[in-house]
Automatic annotation (TrEMBL):
<feature type="region of interest" description="Disordered">
    <location>
        <begin position="46"/>
        <end position="68"/>
    </location>
</feature>
<dbReference type="InterPro" id="IPR004294">
    <property type="entry name" value="Carotenoid_Oase"/>
</dbReference>
<keyword id="KW-0560">Oxidoreductase</keyword>
<dbReference type="GO" id="GO:0010436">
    <property type="term" value="F:carotenoid dioxygenase activity"/>
</dbReference>
<feature type="compositionally biased region" description="Polar residues">
    <location>
        <begin position="105"/>
        <end position="116"/>
    </location>
</feature>
<dbReference type="GO" id="GO:0046872">
    <property type="term" value="F:metal ion binding"/>
</dbReference>
<feature type="compositionally biased region" description="Low complexity">
    <location>
        <begin position="59"/>
        <end position="68"/>
    </location>
</feature>
<comment type="similarity">
    <text>Belongs to the carotenoid oxygenase family.</text>
</comment>
<feature type="binding site">
    <location>
        <position position="415"/>
    </location>
    <ligand>
        <name>Fe cation</name>
    </ligand>
</feature>
<feature type="binding site">
    <location>
        <position position="366"/>
    </location>
    <ligand>
        <name>Fe cation</name>
    </ligand>
</feature>
<protein>
    <recommendedName>
        <fullName>9-cis-epoxycarotenoid dioxygenase</fullName>
    </recommendedName>
</protein>
<feature type="region of interest" description="Disordered">
    <location>
        <begin position="93"/>
        <end position="131"/>
    </location>
</feature>
<keyword id="KW-0223">Dioxygenase</keyword>
<feature type="binding site">
    <location>
        <position position="480"/>
    </location>
    <ligand>
        <name>Fe cation</name>
    </ligand>
</feature>
<dbReference type="Pfam" id="PF03055">
    <property type="entry name" value="RPE65"/>
</dbReference>
<dbReference type="GO" id="GO:0016121">
    <property type="term" value="P:carotene catabolic process"/>
</dbReference>
<dbReference type="GO" id="GO:0009570">
    <property type="term" value="C:chloroplast stroma"/>
</dbReference>
Amino acid sequence: MRSARKDMEHGRVRIAATDGRPGCRCSCRPDQQLLPLPLPMLPGGMASESQIRYPPRPGAGLSRSRASLASITNQSTALAGGHGNLSQQISLKASAAQHRGGRKNSMSVKCQSTSSLPPPPVDTHVTEASPSRIQRAEFPAPDRAAPQKSGKRRNFFQQMAASALDHIERTVVRHIESQVPLPSTADPRVQLEGNFSPVEESPVQHELEVVGKLPANLQGVYMRNGANPRFQPEGGHHFFDGDGMIHAVRFKDGIVSHCSRFTKTYRLRVEEEEGHPLFPKAIGELHGHGGVARLALYFARSLAGIVDSSQGMGVANAGLIYHNGRLLAMSEDDQPYLVRIKEDGDLETVRKFDFDGQHHKSMIAHPKIDPATGEMFALSYNPLMPPHLYCFRVGPDGKKAPEVAITLPEATMMHDFAITKRFVVIPDQQVVFRMTEMLKGGSPVIYNPEKMARYGLLPKYDNDESRIQWIEVPDCFCFHLWNAWEEGDEVVVLGSCMTPADSIFNESDQPLRSLLSEIRLNTTTGKSTRRVLAETNLEAGQLNRSYVGQQNRFLYLAIAEPWPKISGIARVDLQAEEGVRVTKHLYEDGCYGAEPVFVPRTSDPNAPEDDGYVLTFKHNEKTGRSELLVLDASSPSLDLLATVKLPSRVPYGFHGTFVSEADLAKQSLE
């Protein structure tokens, strides 16, 4: 048997050979191999040698996949009733494209197993569990008893087309995908390993066990969004691709309750009705010729009326915001979804939210609420159609102001932004979308080394882009921006600068670094400066949101080490006597957590900035138990005040928010 260790720097699992066998025939170092399948994903433990095959060199099989790709586009066009312009264009471009050796991080892969993932058990309520039980991906069985109808009943043609396209998917699309091994960034056996694996919904459970003493003034609902695939992936899968699930913990009159619910997007409702995935996964499947085939299949299903492309294909798994009495669940691939917080602490998806008919574009996952005005500012980007970016704002009364179209030379991956008193701060960085890369066998999300990163300063209340000022910030990619404010002629931006810039989306041999940095944009000289404030990997986190757009002193950020797990929380004091001071609340061995959320202790505007609590989930990988921590935000070491024992496992996820009882009383029921 080999001794195993985990190398999470690249989001992969490696094993060090100690039995004297020769190294594998892939691109691993001779002394290290990628574990072909996470141990718990196979019944009985480790995969046997007979279940491992070594992949061909990157690019092998592309010529064979072109023939299959032409086949699927022709068949899809016929089944869709002849509406073949787009599919034919895709097929012709794919046939004409000459394969070029891609970047290692977009094509390389280690060892791959030929065995399919077994259907796992669906029980997710926590009992004492062995490590192998904890780390098995848990895909809920479809609820056949009460399907949620998504549209009109199909006619005979649609029924025949659906069956035929399903057959094409099984025989042709999967064949194309099998010609090129999956990179680890799209391999579900890597992306859904351990506590990244999904869980079932958990109904409301009340009177949870609390260790310690809960603050009496902690009244409201803490919620965290995350990716939780409803169905077992049939192809590539990235952690960002899963269906949105919100985990909610409510504090009311000393009683604590918990529930977890899917956000019932159009995509999820249709797939639940069918009992299997129908929509392409934006990151895990849309790469290479397999990605082109997936798009052709989706277009064919849309043209045949099997799915309604006008309803979108978003997963609503990333962000949460409460504005104008409404809780919105968001991901940048669609409009947000309105979710109701019920009186008993349960959650209910109401509908896709278009701001009462005022907004029909997507919205990124990190809108900002100006604490001085109550306005919500947001961005929307389109990877396919220029001008690619829009900025808009919604007043505290829910009325949307005219949006501003912002012209970009090419579509940029834009997950976050910032606001100040006068400006919207827009990052136009070096990770871009190029859909044509799929025709070359690569990922459409790439790092462009020839592009100069820049930040735009758009006056908040302008109606067009004419006065936006672009300032270059060389070699800067911030996935998240924590805050921004104005100091004289400068705009100060706080963010975590990530290198390699595209390592979340593509494989890289370099360890990921995400360093808290200060970027200064001089509006007079048009120049920028950047300095690192902390050498620790600091990623997801928040500040006291009363300080959004103005100078703040404290940040509460997740310690993303070993990447992609979170081993603790950092309290960053930007104005300490010695400069920037970072103190840490570290978890026990085998325990990892989530994004910290700051909750003010009082609504008093004169209260100290750090007068409040930090809430976050923590999971013990040894026991399989999950908890909610309540920490003292004013303590340098973030002293633990109370621990809530949760009745079911909470997978690692994304972003959260807290809605106070006072704000909940103003919740809109529409």
